[in-house]
Amino acid sequence: MPVSEQPPPAEPQSATGRVAPASRRGDRGEPPPSRCRRRPRLPRFTAPPPGARVAIVGVLVVVAAVCYLLLFIRGSFQFAFDRRLTTLGTMVVVAFAHAIATVVFQTVTSNRILTPSIMGFDSLYVMMQTAMVFVFGGSALARTDGLPKLVVQTVLMVLFAVLLYRWLFAGRFANLHLLLLVGVVLGLAFESLSSFLQRLLSPTDYDMLSVRLFGRMSNSDGSYLPLAFAVCLVVGAVVWHRRHRLDTLLLGRDTSVGLGVDHKRELTVLLVLVAVLVAFATALAGPMTFFGFLVATLAYQLTGTHEHRHVLPMAFLLGLFTLVAGQFLMQHVFYAAGFLTVIIEFVGGIVFLVLLLRKGTL
């Protein structure tokens, strides 16, 4: 007997006569087909915390220091190692002084563009050296080299800075723009007086003077380093003890006073510490205007935080890595070790102008 064929059930239609979608087909009970498949999520890259970033830069500094001390030694190993060790010690002092002083100064002034070196320290140093050569002759530079001369230069520069900053920050004329204006004007006055005296020098005296007017790392005296390390340790301990107060000062004068910080006292103490660091580094290794600004700017960018417990060591390590790696490359790759500070100042000046143009204000 033949099996009767029955027509398949008709598709359900909507009120408009169209076939209903599969999701509305209650007779079949099948889930709607998925039109797209979800792609597997890739693991997101999370940046390391600020402490880990500081540790990474510290490892790079150790590697650069080992390479600088031990590679490409020709002749007597002991002589070359001692000379390089003295230069490395000078780099540590210069990097620490400029980096810490710039970060603290920017915190006090609540401005990321200002740097203590632009306030007239370098011009004052040049004027003191020029006046010494003008009065006593070029040979006086070599005869007076030693700790007494270093201490006298540092004390004079610290007194100049303390009087200037104390008057403009703590007096009744306290104004950031006034500080910048007075500092730049005094710096130009010192520079103009130095240029006038240099024109009156003999060619021999001028040549002897010009050697002292550029930042130098390899010509430093090792007898200065114990005093330099002692000054850096004392100032560094005081600044580290005040790292939380520095975080509070970032909030502004009114907020910091409301949180119990003696703003006037902290301002005076920090400015004295900044003056000591910059004056000592300038008297030890020569003027470097934009070095501290460059490493402080990089430190804020790399740490990604405003906390001074991360920014301060990052700035110091970046400064030391810049000097050590730069000295190694310039001395053993490009054979132009004397141009390191010139290149650093050139790059720092460009970064300063770029940030100034981007912000549009000081």
TrEMBL record:
Keywords: Cell membrane, Membrane, Transmembrane, Transmembrane helix, Transport
Chain intervals with Pro residues compositional bias: 1-11
Transmembrane domains' residue ranges: 52-73, 85-105, 125-143, 150-170, 176-201, 222-241, 269-299, 311-329, 335-357
Residues forming coiled coils: none
Primary location class: membrane
Membrane topology: Multi-pass membrane protein
Localization per Swiss-Prot or TrEMBL: Cell membrane
Superkingdom of the source species: Bacteria
SUPFAM superfamilies: ABC transporter involved in vitamin B12 uptake, BtuC (SSF81345)
Region (Disordered), start-end ranges: 1-44
Keyword Kinase: no
Pfam families: FecCD
Annotated family: Belongs to the binding-protein-dependent transport system permease family. FecCD subfamily.
Protein name, UniProt field: Iron chelate uptake ABC transporter family permease subunit
Organism this protein belongs to: Streptomyces spiramenti
